[in-house]
Amino acid sequence: MKSTRRRIGELLIERSFFVSAFISVASVVLISIFIFRQGLPLFKNVSPLEFLFSSNWSPSDPVEPHYGILSFIIGSLYVTAISLILAIPVGVASGIFLSEMAGKRFGPALRTAVELLAGIPSVIYGLFGISFIVPLVRKATGTSGYSVLASSLILAIMTLPTIINMTEISVRSVSRELREASYALGSTKWQTISRTLVPAASSGIITGIVLGMGRALGETMAVLLVGGNAAIMPHGLSSMVRTLTMNIITDMAYAEGTHLTALFTTGVVLFIFILVLNMVVQIIVYSSAKRLGGK
Question: How far is residue 19's CA from residue 40's CA, in Å, rounded to a whole number?
């Protein structure tokens, strides 16, 4: 009786795990089908080249509407790239510090602060940007302050927890034998970190950076509040910007017809960007596992 109950219990647990995995996969598939089904019909009326490589976005023009999202693509990549340039050095250095130097005295407090930073809603980041970052940018540039720079600073802060956590976990997971071998050869602590631990943990660090890039690329609310939301091609750090996500949330409330379809197509473009980033993460993880397995 006990063995029968155990087998039944194991079977139920196995089936529940299968159902959970199936729901996860089915959700992704259904969302993908919905987005592509709603967005791809745009190309019956609008050329893909015009949509992707034109910066003329005037869907409400009664005479000749235009649906070009190049300025939004450039704005998204521009803001994301600058935010990563700002966040990567701080995030990687902080993760290394938490793993190797913080100890029991400062480590718990710093980890709590990082976790709190990760849990703050994006709208709060946006309000902080309006109250603190935008005025600083306004004084520094002499513009309105709502700009690529303000958006990048906010996104840099928002991506820090991801990069910090992934860096700390990756560096901490490096084998103890590798550390001891480095010290046994006469390496200093800094030499061990820079020439042994960081190269060994590089795949995990890169994964954290790519995940942070995905967070920055898909962020809407915080950037909407500090970016200026101008449908123009960004021409500098002080220029206003509208990203792909900002364009969707701004126009969705009143869009209809071809305009609404164009917003779904914008979502398709964003979906493809995020999909590519996730594929990059999987390739990195797979390559790292294969390399370690080979060793």
Answer: 31
Q: Does pTM top 0.90 for this prediction? A: no
DSSP tag of 184? H
DSSP character for 161?
A: H
Cα 89 from chain centroid (whole Å): 16
Can you tell me which residue has the tokens 């196995």?
14
The pLDDT tens digits for 124-162 are: 999 999 999 999 999 998 889 999 999 999 999 999 999
Instruction: Kindly report the backbone phi and psi dihedral angles of residue 192, in degrees, each rounded to the nearest multiple of 5, phi listed first.
Output: -65, -40
Residues, the chain: 295
If phi > 0 it is left, if psi is from -120 to 50 it is alpha, else beta; for residue 249 that is: alpha
Task: Answer positive or negative: Cα dihedral of 241, 77, 258, 249.
Answer: negative
The amino acid at 43: F
Q: Tell me the CA end-to-end span of the chain in Å, nearest whole number.
A: 46
Handedness of CA 172, 119, 281, 92 (dihedral sign): negative
Give kind and range of the element (H or E) at residue 13: helix 2-39
Q: How far is CA 162 from CA 31, 102, 119, 155, in A?
A: 25, 18, 11, 12
Give the H or E element holding residue 281.
helix 258-294
